Amino acid sequence: MEIIDNTSRVQLYYQLYDILLNKIKSGDYKPNDLFPTENELIEKYKVSRITVRKAMDMLSQEGLISKKRGIGTFVKAQKIENNLASIIDFNDNMKNKGYSHSTKVITNKIVECNNNISEALSIPNNTKLINIERLRLMQNEPICLESANLIYDRCPEVLNRDFNNESLRTFIKDNYKIIWKHAKQKITAINTDKRISNILNIKKGDPILYIERVSYCTDNIPLEYLEAYYRADMYYFTVDLEY
């Protein structure tokens, strides 16, 4: 709700903070948008200046907004944590963090594997693959491009599905009874070329995080070769270590 409840036991500044936080997470206020002024918030929510300042201070302390002297307050781009201890579905990750999100399929077609994929998946060079490219968006802002290559003979119906709103891995698991067991991946920092930068809405040459991943199913059989390009200004990776 966007209404301040003066009869609630919850402090007014916290109610306002919660409203503004939800508007940021839902994408109503997008990264780099000019945030409403104190006067605008006072007028809209019928609260005091002290209440507005307390709510905005909380957002600022959480790194959600920042002030630029002489210009105003802006919504900051949020970095998404991706823990490397396990493979987390993009949709589940975004839902858990409370951010609006979507997927846009760019390509879904048959290709022949190159030497790199042939070696990674232990298959001949002329093996037919399905290449499916998906753009991941948070709050309507591109944050990641994934290019998955799957062995066509193992899951041919992937070509006929709409993965804008369906999980690729779940479809493969449910329809082909394929159990994903483990994966090996390599992470490097690279500079974007023209195509990737245009898709991710960043400048050519900007640094990004690049992942190569081979996923294995039952009996340690490699099935998927994935290349993923993550915006470095919106993603970071963590891993739990033990001594």
TrEMBL record:
Lineage top rank: taxon: Bacteria
CDD domains in UniProt: WHTH_GntR
Matches recorded under InterPro entries: Bact_HTH_transcr_reg, Chorismate_lyase_/UTRA_dom_sf, Tscrpt_reg_HTH_GntR, UTRA, WH-like_DNA-bd_sf, WH_DNA-bd_sf
Residues in coiled coil: none
Organism annotation: Brachyspira pilosicoli
Gene Ontology terms for molecular function: DNA binding; DNA-binding transcription factor activity
One of the protein's GO biological processes: negative regulation of DNA-templated transcription
Name assigned to this protein: GntR family transcriptional regulator
Membrane-spanning residues: none
Gene3D superfamilies in the record: Chorismate lyase-like, Winged helix-like DNA-binding domain superfamily/Winged helix DNA-binding domain
Domain HTH gntR-type stretches: 10-78
PANTHER family to which the protein is assigned, alphabetical: MANNOSYL-D-GLYCERATE TRANSPORT/METABOLISM SYSTEM REPRESSOR MNGR-RELATED (PTHR44846), MANNOSYL-D-GLYCERATE TRANSPORT_METABOLISM SYSTEM REPRESSOR MNGR-RELATED (PTHR44846:SF1)
Keywords, sorted A to Z: DNA-binding, Transcription, Transcription regulation
Tagged with keyword ATP-binding: no
